[in-house]
Design a protein that fits this description.
Blueprint lengths: L9 H4 L3 H19 L3 H10 L20 H6 L13 E7 L7 E6 H17 L7 E4 L7 H13 L2 E3 L6 H11 L3 E4 L1 H13 L4 H4 L4 E5 L5 H11 L2 E6 L10 E3 L6 E3 L4 E6 L13 E7 L10 E7 L1 E3 L10 E2 L4 E2 L4 E3 L2 E3 L1 H8 L5 E12 L2 E10 L8 H19 L4 E5 L14 E3 L6
Parallel strand pairs: 3-4, 3-5, 5-6, 6-7, 18-21, 19-20
Antiparallel strand pairs: 1-2, 7-8, 8-9, 9-14, 10-11, 11-12, 12-15, 13-14, 16-17, 18-19
Helix pairs in contact: 5-6, 7-8, 8-10, 11-12
The structure holds adenosine monophosphate (AMP) and zinc ion.
The site of adenosine monophosphate has 16 residues, from strand 7 and strand 12.
Length: about 450
């Protein structure tokens, strides 16, 4: 174990595997008892004959039914609540493209625990009350806003709730208030740097920035390195989802060797998305999470659709909370083009290997003359001359070749000027699919 001051909650962060499992069994039993207050789970548990005493080990979680996003939609808005509504103090809702949105309810205790979890993550990467924390997430239904806000306040930092967009103002806050840490979606960091360049601001000299929390969308290791070099900071991967409260579910420690999922809050499973059976450590599968200290709306074996794998259960940082690989993407993000399965992150990984390219790209799928095609547009770095054919042509050819090696198809590659691709304020839109669907 390291110096105790490295941990915000040493009694929870430094548990041994046996202690983690004992706590999980106790909390899971209590969760099952509590879920009997939700009409949804009461019915399911009674049908399956489930009793809290059936849980003797963490692996017994497998005796419980899965919960899906569709269950949340079908029971919209409050059908999964395990407490009366008067005990709830907030809800977060995410809009779906089809059908009802999903709603997640929080009691005051849930919000307190959520703030504790986020504070724990931020402390883990070295932030302290003397830091100035700026949050560039939208405040509102997106949990990255309020989630980081309360967590950073809980830690005791001076917080700058800058919210999304208005990059010039964002930069003024950074320089005027001496911001040392920022939370941002990875795609927004590039935008910040672009505008800093235009303003003649050197982040290394003219700001006090040292730590970034980047998350909310999939990004590659290569993109992280880019971001770190661009700003002269350490960038830590932050994972969360509204259904599990929001940010604070998992975070990298200073070792940057995977995401520590807090096992005193969640039971983590990785399953084969087809058979729903557990996959061995190291193999990619779907992340399934069970909340074990939620009050308003606990979720049992929630199928996240996120794909990842177990990296380990110990770490040089002294924490034994399970380490998972950065998300490969969501099973819903997978593109199937001419029978080949492709994740946007595979394309990103290749693009980020080229110093001539910036970090923004857009993948467009179209049907031309009955053939499905992929076009990859990618922005070049500032100062790169797109009229220089002698440079552009061989570069485009080399990018195409490396992409083909990775995805086994030949995409059309188009280099575009910096800032030319559409920007979104929240999560980046990486894929547009205009293919004809043949019935
Ligand atoms: P939301 O509930 O709208 O906040 O979205 C949650 C989803 O965002 C997760 O299920 C993931 O698909 C994605 N996500 C969040 N954080 C990360 C991260 N660090 N890396 C990759 N994907 C992420
Ligand atoms: Zn660690």
């Amino acid at each position: 174990m390291l110096d105790q001051s490295e941990y915000l909650h040493p009694d929870k962060e430094c548990l041994s595997r046996e202690q983690i499992e004992a706590l999980q069994v106790e909390r899971l039993q209590a969760t099952i008892r509590h879920c009997m207050n939700s009409p949804f789970y009461k019915k399911k548990f009674e049908e399956m004959g489930i009793k809290p005493e059936d849980i003797k080990t963490t692996a017994d979680v497998r005796k419980l039914p899965f919960t899906t996003k569709q269950d949340l939609r079908d029971n919209y808005p409050f059908g999964l609540a395990s407490v009366p509504l008067e005990k709830c103090v907030r809800l977060h809702s995410s809009s779906g493209t089809t059908g009802n949105p999903t709603v997640i309810l929080h009691s005051q205790k849930d919000l307190d625990e959520w703030a504790n979890a986020v504070a724990r993550c931020l402390w883990m990467v070295g932030l302290r009350p003397s830091d100035v924390f700026q949050n560039s997430s939208g405040y509102g239904m997106f949990t990255g806003g309020l989630g980081f806000q309360y967590g950073a306040e809980r830690l005791g930092m001076l917080t700058v709730p800058a919210a999304a967009g208005n990059t010039l103002r964002q930069i003024k806050f950074i320089t005027d208030f001496g911001t040392t840490a920022i939370h941002a979606v990875p795609s927004y960091v590039t935008r910040l740097k672009e505008v800093m360049d235009q303003q003649g601001i050197d982040p290394r000299k003219d700001t006090k920035l040292k730590i970034l929390a980047i998350g909310a969308e999939p990004h590659s290791e290569e993109q992280r390195k880019r971001i770190e070099n661009m700003l002269g900071v350490k960038a830590y991967n932050s994972f969360g989802m509204s259904e599990m409260c929001g940010p604070g579910v998992a975070f990298e420690c200073k070792e940057q060797n995977g995401l520590h999922f807090w096992e005193d809050y969640y039971i983590v499973e990785i399953v084969d998305p087809e058979t729903l059976e557990p996959v061995p450590d190291g193999e990619i599968g779907e992340l399934v999470l069970t909340t074990i200290n939620r009050e308003a709306m606990p979720l049992i074996r929630y199928r996240t659709r996120d794909l990842t794998r177990v990296l380990g259960r110990t770490c040089a940082c002294g924490r034994n909370h399970i380490r998972l690989d950065r998300m490969k993407g969501r099973s819903d993000d997978m593109m199937v083009l001419r029978g080949v399965n492709i994740f946007p992150i595979q394309i990103e990984k290749i693009l980020m290997q080229f110093n001539e390219l910036s970090t923004d790209y857009l993948i467009t799928l179209t049907t031309d003359n009955d053939n499905d095609n992929m076009t990859v547009e990618v922005e070049v770095v500032a100062g790169f001359d797109l009229t220089d054919v002698a440079r552009v042509q061989p570069l485009t050819k080399e990018i195409t070749r490396r992409l083909k090696d990775e995805i086994l198809l030949t995409p059309r590659v188009k280099l575009v000027p910096l800032g030319a691709l559409p920007k979104s304020e929240g999560k980046a839109v990486r894929v547009k699919d205009f293919r004809k669907v043949y019935q």
